[in-house]
Design brief:
16% strand; alpha/beta; 7-stranded parallel sheet; binds thymidine-5'-diphosphate; Rossmann fold; binds nicotinamide-adenine-dinucleotide
């Protein structure tokens, strides 16, 4: 099998590249990534010399480029991780979110359609369901929860999801969608809550907590998400949506305090700052469908996952310090010119 993984130089896509090469050593993996600020070739350094792996730099919204790639490579499946993924950036400047997340999805699906109806999987998010109240712990997102978005980011992901389902119904494209809760783990870009707090705490810098810090997210270790996508790709029912989450709801402030405790840093580093506009209160996934149909269950408990994640950031300081200092932009030329 030859699989196109888009956005593989980012956090989840990168972890998925490693997961697939480790678990399906007979598969050819091609990674297409634009290397935006969030894409980092050093994330893929460990597979660059693997003969089953190839990296291609390009934009999923560039139709000419994508069409040429598909006619040259003859993929059996396409898994789309590529996206603008940060809510705060979408609030500052929404347009690139619509171009990459919606137009990019359409360009990829058309390429699948015109190259033999290639199997397509869309990596989506629980944020398409909007948010839940804090005082109703009984409520969770199921696949039937109406789409009800809050941010330009989640709206662009929802737009893409609707398009994916339309391509199934209208053209019979063999699609699936996964909607996962917040991931954490290695290679997480340090603009997101957990890596931001780890890296800032290590530098004894203040930790900016939005609003009252009581917003709740449902955290899943990234490898569990990779396993879920692998199962959906091979055994998922075509045309279906699968929620992915591990029943691990935590408030932001509890996460921040836990990180401080693990790093032996004082809580005086915490600084409450102005809330995010339209800030979603609570996310919570009901993963009953993927458990029932595909036997998926999360393997990593939060206590172990956060331990592993902190250890990874301690052991891989160069990875995130290069990013923070901006040097990572030069990394592509250095790595790619050798190939
Ligand atoms: P990320 O921001 O870390 O990585 C995104 C990657 O996509 C980067 O490598 C970037 O260079 C690449 N990219 C961006 N625009 C591109 C374009 N036009 N063409 C080609 N490549 C492009 O994101 P992530 O956190 O790894 O998220 C991956 C996917 O998973 C996204 O679709 C996101 O919506 C979804 N998701 C993320 C989470 C989470 O907690 N991070 C949870 C659920 C779903
Ligand atoms: P984030 O990692 O951006 O993921 P998302 O908003 O997509 O769930 O943020 C997770 C939570 O942490 C969210 O409630 C916003 C909050 N947050 C802070 O309090 N401070 C910060 O500096 C960041 C980046 C996030």
């Amino acid at each position: 099998m030859k699989i196109l993984i888009t956005g593989g130089a980012g956090f989840i896509g990168g972890n998925f590249v490693y997961y697939m090469l480790a678990n399906h050593s007979d598969y050819e993996i091609v990674c297409l990534d634009k290397l935006t600020y969030a894409g980092n070739l050093s994330t893929l350094a460990g597979v660059m010399n693997n003969k089953m792996f190839k990296f291609v730099k390009g934009d999923i919204a560039d139709k000419k480029f994508v069409d040429e790639l598909f006619s040259k490579e003859k993929f059996d499946a396409c898994i789309n991780f590529a996206a603008e993924s940060h809510v705060d950036r979408s609030i500052e400047d929404p347009q690139i979110f619509l171009i990459t997340n919606i137009i990019g999805t359409q360009v990829l699906m058309d390429a699948c359609r015109f190259n033999g109806n290639i199997r397509y999987h869309q990596v989506s998010t629980d944020e398409v369901y909007g948010d839940l109240p804090l005082d109703r712990p009984d409520l969770m997102f199921t696949e039937d929860t109406p789409i009800h978005t809050s941010s330009p980011y989640s709206s662009s992901k929802a737009g893409a999801d609707l398009l994916v389902l339309a391509y199934y119904r209208t053209y019979g494209l063999p699609v699936t969608i996964s909607r996962c809760s917040n991931n954490y783990g290695p290679y997480h870009f340090p603009e997101k809550l957990i890596p931001l707090m780890i890296t800032r705490a290590l530098a004894d810098e203040t930790l900016p907590v939005y609003g009252d810090g009581k917003n709740v997210r449902d955290w899943l270790y990234v490898e569990d998400h990779c396993h879920a996508i692998d199962l959906i790709l091979h055994n998922g029912r075509i045309g279906e949506v699968y929620n992915v989450g591990g029943h691990n709801e935590m408030s932001n402030i509890d996460i921040v305090k836990l990180i401080l405790k693990k790093l032996d840093k004082p809580e005086s580093l915490i600084k409450y700052v102005t809330d995010r506009k339209g800030h979603d209160r609570r996310y919570a996934i009901d993963p009953a469908k993927i458990h029932r149909e595909l036997g998926w269950l999360p393997q990593t408990k939060f206590a172990d996952g956060i331990e592993k994640t902190i250890a990874w950031y301690l052991d891989n300081k160069k990875w995130w310090q290069d990013i923070i200092s901006g040097d990572y932009r030069n990394y592509y030329d250095k790595m790619y010119s050798k190939r």
